[in-house]
Write a structure and sequence with these properties.
The complex is a heterodimer of chains A (about 350) and B (about 290). Chain A is an alpha+beta fold and about 350 residues long. Chain A folds into 2 domains: about 5-235, Rossmann fold (3-Layer(aba) Sandwich), CATH 3.40.50.300; about 235-360, OB fold (Dihydrolipoamide Acetyltransferase, E2P), CATH 2.40.50.140. Chain A contains 8 helices and 20 strands. Chain A has helices at about 45-50, 95-105, 110-120, 135-150, 165-185, 195-200, 220-225, 230-235; strands at about 5-15, 15-30, 30-35, 60-65, 65, 80, 155-160, 185-190, 205-210, 210-215, 240-250, 250-255, 260-265, 275-280, 285-290, 295-310, 315-320, 325-330, 345-350, 355-360. In chain A, strands 6-7-8-3-9-10 form a 6-stranded mixed β-sheet, with helices on both faces. In chain A, α3 crosses α4. The longest helix of chain A is centred in the middle third of the chain and has 18 residues, at about 165-185. Chain A is elongated and about 75 Å long. By secondary structure, chain B is mainly alpha-helical. Helices cover about 75% and strands about 0% of the residues of chain B. In chain B, strands 1-2 form a two-stranded antiparallel ribbon. In chain B, β1 and β2 (about 50) form a beta hairpin. The longest helix of chain B is centred in the first third of the chain and has 38 residues, at about 1-40. The chains are: A alpha+beta (about 350), B mainly alpha (about 290). At the A-B interface, α2 of A face α8 and α9 of B.
Chain lengths: ~350, ~290
């Protein structure tokens, strides 16, 4: 498979601040690749270096094997969709989309044909004459994508373009964007701080923190097998305990948390008794009132503080007895747990394979 | 309750408006009405004052008057254009290139020369440019010139002086509009393959149109109505229309003719601006906003 983009040990230093720290990765042709990280982690700087607006301090960026150093943004085979889309308000939709083609001095009939084809592709065939400010948020989004895709770039870069949309539209655009990418087959590099956007759309996701990639993996692996505590905290919701290793078994360890709870769990690395560890557990890994016959569960009693009803994402906030740390437990909406009220004492159990344990550094 | 509030509102309105209305009426409207009447009065053969259009007709009959006016308009348009071409890069540098903390400082630098009066500024230029002036002295010292040349009293110097005087009135509205220009629009155009000139003509200038139009109107009107700079820096042949008006009032002591020229200047320059707005497809209400 052809590699569209390779980033080789790229570093960017602003004054004394290292924004991007020796990052390397490769993106295959036709892939939807996301870079996920909190604001200020360097993801925008990385994207701007790929687009050509910023030159890396060291390292190299290759697109289809060609070194991009010293090549200006208007000469690179990549296009960028800006956070606020940057549609030209002084032009009509058609002029916006034709802008890049005109720069390539393509002839007028070709331009008109291509503009019409791409407008049809994004589902806005009759919008060519509209002004930009006559479009809704979702329509602008599609025009911004059309304006880049019409140029047939090797790599399309997207800088959190869904950030400004309201929730409902964002959910809809996520699906649409993924479908569109599958249809056109262009390589997409998408940066976002919204983990759900990254997980839903991407083939691969790189989680970035403080200028470095913490983990580059498939969305499933990021969620199920985070390799660093940062990824465990950042991707999806997690309950966290800190504690120390009490006893080491063959494939699992016994951890005593600071509150005095003792859990058996699998470990990502070799651990010694007495070492300080962080233990992470997903809300949906906890079973409410588990069957007493189920073997291999960590069981403990909790008091229900409150019920957060949110349809399929409903949760319980609970506090284990003898502890003050609140935990989040997923509450399945199959009516089985309708009897639970705030203040009730219930039993919680979780499988020893669902927790993840990291050595504290 | 409602009626009393309305009553109250009218009183405060009247209180704040009275000085302005008085000012406008007593110092601007009234003298103009007087001048307007005056412009339609002329001496007949017997020497008594009668109503007539002859003051206005003279402007069109005597080529020296209307040619001076055409010259003044053409030079004012040239000055406006030159001011714009110099002011745009300056405004662009201040708003988009320089670091934010230098922006105020740079704008102050632009304002600083305008703290002294136009007269002093023009004399400053004269000290620099005259035959025995600083520049000639410097060029003689370095051996670039054998004998001093007169750089004052020609059209080029006059135009330079007028551009210098008008700069601020173009830069300030341009800074205003360019500050509102989203940087990502420029970057997006660059990313889509545009070069510097395309970005200038397709993105920056279309965005800056309201500022360009309002700046141009101010610069054009100020230049057209300027008296000092053309008079002091222009030569014997660089006649400006305001000098014709001055001559009528002061030299010929013909106030009737002078006020007719004054109103012609007002009417014709308004016509030029109206035509300019029509030609560039702009609306004054949009620009003022």
């Amino acid at each position: 498979m052809q590699i569209d983009l390779s980033v080789l040990s790229v570093t960017k230093i602003f004054d004394a601040f290292t924004a991007v720290d020796a990052v390397s990765f490769e993106v295959n042709q036709g892939e939807f690749f996301s870079i996920l990280g909190p604001s200020g982690c360097g993801k925008t700087t990385l994207l701007r270096m790929i687009a050509g607006f910023t030159e890396p301090t060291s390292g190299a960026i290759h697109i289809r094997g060609e070194d991009m150093s010293g090549i200006a943004p208007n000469k690179r085979p990549v296009n960028l969709i800006f956070q606020h889309l940057a549609l030209f308000p002084m032009m009509s939709v058609e002029q916006n989309i034709a802008f890049g083609l005109q720069r390539r001095r393509e002839n007028k009939t070709d331009i008109r044909k291509k503009v019409r084809a791409i407008l049809e592709r994004v589902g806005l065939p009759d919008y060519g004459d509209r002004k930009v400010d006559q479009l809704s948020g979702g329509q602008r989004q599609r025009i911004a994508i059309a304006r880049c895709l019409v140029l047939n770039p090797t790599v399309l870069l997207l800088d959190e373009p869904l950030g400004a949309l309201d929730l409902k539209l964002r959910e809809q655009m996520k699906v649409e964007l993924k479908k569109l990418q599958a249809q056109v087959g262009t390589t997409f590099i998408y940066i976002t701080h919204d983990q759900s956007e990254a997980l839903v759309m991407s083939d691969h996701v790189a989680v970035m923190n403080e200028g470095k990639f913490e983990q580059l993996d498939t969305p499933q692996n990021l969620y199920n097998r985070p390799r660093t505590p940062f990824v465990a905290r950042f991707v999806g919701e997690n309950n966290a305990w800190s504690g120390s290793v009490h006893r080491c078994g063959e494939s699992n360890v016994e951890v005593r948390t600071e509150e005095g709870l003792v859990f058996r769990t699998k470990a990502e690395e070799r651990l010694q008794p007495g070492q300080r560890v962080d233990l992470f557990l997903r809300p949906e890994a906890m079973l409410i009132q588990p069957d007493p016959g189920l073997p291999g569960l960590n069981r403990f009693d909790v008091v229900v503080d409150s019920i957060l009803f949110d349809g399929a994402n409903s949760q319980l906030l609970v506090t284990p007895l003898k502890s003050r740390r609140e935990l989040v437990v997923a509450l399945p909406q199959n009516r089985q747990y309708d009897y639970i009220k705030a203040g009730d004492k219930i039993e919680i159990g979780w499988d020893t394979n669902s927790g993840i344990c990291f050595l504290q550094r | 309750m409602k009626a009393s509030r309305k009553h109250h509102f009218q009183w405060t309105l009247a209180f704040f408006l009275t000085p302005v209305v008085l000012w406008l009426f007593l110092l601007i409207v009234l003298p103009h009405i007087d001048l307007l009447f005056m412009s339609f009065r002329t001496k007949d053969d017997s020497g008594s004052m009668v109503w007539s259009f002859s003051n206005y007709m003279l402007f069109f009959k005597e080529p020296i008057y209307w040619l001076t006016f055409v010259r003044t308009v053409l030079y004012s348009i040239l000055v406006t254009f030159l001011t714009f071409t110099i002011a745009l890069p300056v405004a662009f540098y201040i708003t988009k290139v320089s670091r934010p903390r230098y922006q105020v400082f740079l704008t102050m630098l632009l304002l600083l020369p305008f703290w002294v009066s136009e007269l002093v500024r023009v004399y400053g230029w004269m000290i620099l440019l005259r035959e025995s002036g600083v520049i000639n002295h410097f060029l003689m010292k370095t051996g670039l010139l054998d004998k001093p040349i007169e750089m004052l009293y020609n059209d080029v110097t006059m135009i330079m002086g007028l551009v210098y005087t008008s700069m601020l009135f173009m830069v300030v509205p341009l800074i205003g509009v360019l500050e509102n220009l989203d940087d990502s629009l420029i970057e997006a155009a660059y990313d889509l393959g545009a070069n510097m000139w395309t970005i200038l003509f397709r993105i920056i200038i279309p965005h800056a149109v309201p500022g360009i139009v309002s700046g141009s109107i101010v610069v054009f009107m100020l230049t057209l109505g300027d008296y000092l700079t053309p008079n002091l820096m222009g030569g014997k042949n660089s006649l400006w229309f305001t000098e014709q008006i001055y001559n009528q009032f002061i030299a010929s002591f013909n106030w009737n003719q002078g006020s007719a020229f004054g109103f012609l200047l007002l009417a014709l320059s308004s016509l030029v601006i109206w035509a300019g707005l029509k030609l560039t497809n702009q609306k004054l209400s949009k620009v003022v906003k």
